[in-house]
Each structure stands twice: as structure tokens, then as C-alpha cells.
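INFO batch 0412 | record 1 of 1 | parsing
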Amino acid sequence: MKLSNILKSVLLGMTVLSVSACGNGESGKSPASSLPASPAKSSNGAYVPNPTGKPMSEDIKDELESIHKKEAASIPTIKELPAGSNQGKKVLIAYFTWGGRSGDMARYIQQKTGGDIYEIKRDPDYPSGYSDVIKESAHELDAGVIPKVAGTPPDVSKYDVLILGYPCWWFTEPLIVTSFLQGQNTKDKLIVPYMCSFTSPFEVTLPALHAAAPDAKIFTGLTLDKDTDEHPAIDDWLLKAGF
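INFO prediction complete | emitting C-alpha cells
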């Protein structure tokens, strides 16, 4: 089996985090009128990725995705930039990956843009076993853990554009991505995000992304789901983003 096919197979398993691990039934849905009009905040003003009051292990997929889509609707994003407006600018491609797909896409984007590339890692690293990483990532969200970024990340303030890639974990962005952004000065920076998932859309990760980099300008995110023809989709998205 080719390596790319192996990685895609791992991805299909990993995305159970947003499908099977929390269920796919209708019992968790909330009426639209009960959903928040803006992202949920804790008493100290921090964004709350799971405001349902239920643990991630429960069947909350539909409920939580509906909440995040409602939150995302109030967050402005840039839909398109002038052709070539970001060519020649200093670009950082930062990505977090577990199954490998986000990293594959980051390297393809580097070929297209010529930007610097950086892999976001946790200290300690996430478990390599699927069931273990499901439990670990759910625990981070349930317990409000702030994971530590491994090593010394590059200084985003020295770049014009941050292209940011990550998988969808538990219907939001992985908390290690939040940690990476919160440790940076992203004021007025352009963030161009892509998200790898099985079926979840990028919008479910937008509230956490915006909360972690509230002063940044966010370009419309690209969803790379199980049905996406990856390279053509990325080419079109980069073109709209001014590359």
C-alpha cells in the first residue's frame, strides 16, 4: 500500500473523534433558539470549546457542532484577496498533525508558496495509539488543560502571513493549536487556515481559532474532508488568498 493511502486510512480512523467517538445521533441536538449568539466565555473571559456542560465522551456531536456553527456565523472572515497580493510576502506555514494528512498538505502548500514550514508539537507528544489519543484529547477539553508547545516556536510577528493547518478534534481545533496561537503576537496578521476532517466543516473550529488570535485577520478556512480532491482545492483556495 502506498504511504499516502496509509496516511489517508489513518485519517479516516482519526476523524472518528468527530463522528463515532461522540456518536452521530440526533438526541444531542439543541433548539436553535437556545444556542449562543456569540462564542461562550468562562468567568475569566477564556473561550469555552464545550459549553454544553457534558463530557466529551457523551453523544454531543450534533449539539456541539450546531453551537460552533452558530458562533462562527458572528465572526467575520476575508472571502477573497486580490490576485497575487500575497506573493513575495514572508509566509509561515505552521501545522499540527497526528495522522499525517495536515503535514502532507503543509508540505504541498510550501511547494506552492515557498514559505517557511513549522510543525507544532506538544510537550510531551500526544500518544501514538488511537484510543489513547482520543482519551487524552478529550481529557484536555474536559479538564481545561492548556498543553505546552514543544521547543521554541518561530516568531509569527516576523511574518506577513500565517498559513495554519490542523485536524478537527472533538468538533473544534486541537488545544495545542490554541496554545501555539496564544503564545504569539498575531495582531493584524493574516491567518489563512485549513482543517482536515472526515465530515466536519471548518466553521466548527473557527470560534476557537478566533478566540486564540482575536486581533488577527482570518481568511475563509478550507475544509479538507474525506471527499475533497485535495490539491485542486488547495490551489483554488491559495489563489483566492492572493497567492
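INFO post-check: The chain is about 30% helix and 15% strand.
INFO record closed
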